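Title: Comparing notes on inverse folding

I've been comparing how different people in this forum approach sequence design from structure. To keep things fair, I'm posting one structure and asking everyone to reply with a full sequence. Here's the target:
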């Protein structure tokens, strides 16, 4: 493995589960809370929106330019206002940014800057196509984002099957948009069906949508909310670091456990 950074691909094969939100918040927390050097990459070539989440609406060069050999990767990377670097894709690709992309090319280009970062997080396409294959090839490990319902679980099982066939290690699942309703699938249901551990349960929170309207990760705009603490705990697991839950009820519960 070249370089010292870890490349984490974030995948799902169903839109609307919050995959890009997970990417932007993980990037923010790793950079701001854990002082890691982070690059987030929009690997969703045909329908990119990571830049929209982060307020990066225009870039002189994008991942499209990198993959079509218009510029080197370092030239397309820019600093976000949230403390980490970002490599967006073109919302409207130009004539020199069209055509079939070799799925191995993202791996090659990301490897060129891997040594400059602690973490590179790639937001994959939600479709089972060459773009998702590209993310799988480029990644050292994968996070699979799902939600607690049967249609999404079915898609998640399919994504896991493809990842295992590609022999890309899966770190675990992120169970997102949980509302604590009796009709939802439980963590145990999801783990039993997929054979993959759930690393994080992230509650549904309207503040996530509010943060998106401000193009700011919710973990930064509302750091004391449960959703933000969940992202901190997930980031700590991925980085192999300790994290103390700051919520008062958590400390009280810990005293009773002791």
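Reply #1:
Here's my take.
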């Amino acid at each position: 493995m070249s370089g010292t950074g870890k490349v984490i691909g974030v995948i799902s094969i169903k839109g609307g589960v919050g995959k890009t939100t997970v990417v932007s918040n993980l990037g923010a927390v790793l950079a701001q809370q854990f002082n890691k050097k982070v690059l987030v990459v929009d690997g969703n070539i045909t329908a990119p929106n990571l830049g929209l989440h982060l307020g990066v609406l225009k870039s002189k060069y994008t991942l499209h330019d990198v993959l079509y050999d218009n510029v080197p990767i370092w030239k397309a990377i820019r600093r976000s206002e949230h403390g980490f670097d970002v490599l967006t894709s073109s919302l409207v690709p130009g004539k020199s940014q069209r055509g079939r992309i070799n799925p191995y090319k993202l791996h090659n280009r990301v490897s060129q800057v891997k040594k400059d970062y602690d973490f590179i997080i790639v937001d994959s396409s939600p479709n089972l196509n060459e773009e998702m294959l590209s993310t799988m090839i480029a990644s050292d490990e994968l996070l699979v984002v799902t939600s607690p319902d049967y249609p999404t679980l079915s898609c998640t099982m399919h994504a896991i099957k493809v990842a295992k066939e590609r022999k890309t290690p899966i770190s675990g699942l992120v169970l997102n948009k949980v509302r604590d309703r009796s009709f939802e699938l439980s963590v145990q249901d999801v783990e039993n069906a997929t054979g993959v551990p759930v690393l994080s349960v992230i509650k549904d929170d309207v503040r996530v949508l509010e943060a998106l309207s401000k193009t700011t990760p919710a973990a930064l705009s509302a750091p004391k909310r449960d959703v933000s603490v969940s992202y901190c705990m997930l980031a700590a697991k991925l980085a192999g670091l300790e994290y103390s839950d700051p919520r008062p009820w958590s400390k009280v519960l810990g005293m009773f456990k002791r």
